[in-house]
Design goal:
binds acetyl coenzyme *A, Peroxisomal Thiolase, Chain A, domain 1, 334 residues, 23% strand, alpha/beta, four-stranded mixed sheet, five-stranded mixed sheet, 13 strands, globular
């Protein structure tokens, strides 16, 4: 193993221009702006126009991240795409993005850890770079969730939006980059959140009375309880591994599923509100794209300074969860 530190060199994102507001949803299902804001914190979501493939969002986010890193597509050695809603099972979204950005030297594959996908991908990418196998890895979290949302089901359709977030990872000086990480999976709890694909059980059919079988179904309160505990415990564990406490960090960038989940975890960790990055009022739940989009916004708004200590933490389908402790150090390419 090379003794090198791996960090984020560049970030990018794409949010489709069309908006779906709480008031729009009031016309589609029996809900209200007041209920959605109070129970989730969400006000609007971006939705990709029908007929446009979802991976095109990732192409735009990827180009911005590569440019932000001061690289060209030809420099990229590997593309990992995280997604819950691929346009095709084959070709992978990663290959579609590789083709469209002209990353001719890159290997490419998709990875699915649901909303935890970005955290899993960063940890995987880090291994490729640390071993010296690859120099620059592009991660694109590409989530066209409107494509797997049943807009007749008020329990889920108020939650999801479309977006892509991207980062380029590479070597950074030792004081920056990823310091500790932890990944978990709980397959025994997977039945609490399902999106059928090539096999649909009778139970999955019954849970989707509108007949849209390839849509998200979840036991909201089971996932909620898991989420608060998973975000709290993963953050505590990764900080403990780094010899830090929640009070030592400058910012926590959590998966954006529900403001009550985020606030619940922050309260248990005794982290002040001003250290919590929340964007879900404008994006809804964008699954694995939540963290890279939030990181891109925080970076471009100047909310992240080199040397800031951060935790990225997510939970999601699988069920899965994970956290990364790292020191921000962009434009510090080695
Ligand atoms: N508008 C109005 N009322 C609603 C709506 C709505 N959109 N949705 C549900 N309700 C009703 C319910 O029917 C229920 O009514 P009842 O008491 O008459 O039965 C009442 O509101 C309360 O329902 P709960 O499900 O208990 O509402 P809760 O406060 O738990 O909020 C929510 C539901 C927002 C789904 C919450 O449970 C949650 O955020 N869970 C976690 C979801 C999550 O994070 N998933 C992540 C995975 S996403 C992925 O991987 C793609």
């Amino acid at each position: 193993m090379h003794d090198l530190s791996v960090g984020i060199l560049g970030t990018g994102m794409f949010l489709p221009p069309d908006l779906l507001t709480n008031h729009d949803l009031e016309k589609m299902v029996d809900t209200s702006d007041e209920w959605i804001v109070r129970r989730t914190g969400m006000k609007q979501r971006h939705i990709l126009k029908e007929g446009i493939p979802s991976y095109t969002m990732g192409v735009e986010a990827a180009k911005l991240a590569i440019e932000d890193a001061g690289l060209t597509p030809m420099d990229i050695d590997l593309i990992i795409v995280t997604t819950e809603a691929p346009d095709f099972l084959s070709p992978s979204m990663a290959c579609l993005i590789q083709r469209d950005i002209g990353a001719k030297n890159a290997a490419a594959f998709d990875m699915n850890a649901a909303c935890t996908g970005f955290v899993y991908a960063v940890v995987a990418a880090k291994q490729f770079i640390k071993t010296g196998y690859y120099r620059y890895v592009l991660i694109v979290s590409n989530e066209g969730l409107s494509r797997i949302t049943d807009y007749k089901n008020r329990n889920t359709c108020i939650l999801f939006g479309d977006a892509a977030g991207a980062v380029v990872l590479g070597e950074v000086p030792g004081e920056y980059g990823i310091k500790e990480s932890i990944l978990y999976s709980y397959g025994d709890l997977g039945h609490n959140l399902t999106i059928p694909c090539c096999y649909i059980s009778e139970e999955d059919k019954e849970r989707r009375p509108s007949g849209m079988y390839r849509s998200v179904w979840q036991d909201g309160s089971e996932v909620f309880t898991f989420a608060v505990r998973a975000m709290t415990d993963s953050t505590k564990k990764v900080l403990e591994m780094a010899g830090k406490t929640p009070q030592d960090i400058d910012m926590i960038i959590p998966h954006q599923a529900n403001i009550r989940i985020i606030n619940g975890a922050a309260k248990r960790l005794k982290i002040d509100d001003d250290k919590v990055m929340a964007i879900l009022d404008k994006t809804g739940n964008i699954s694995s794209a939540s963290i890279p989009v939030a990181v891109d916004i925080a970076s471009r708004e100047g909310r992240l300074k080199n040397g800031d200590s951060l935790v990225m933490v997510a939970f999601g389908g699988g069920l899965t969860c994970g956290a990364i402790y790292f020191i921000w150090g962009k434009n510090q390419r080695h």
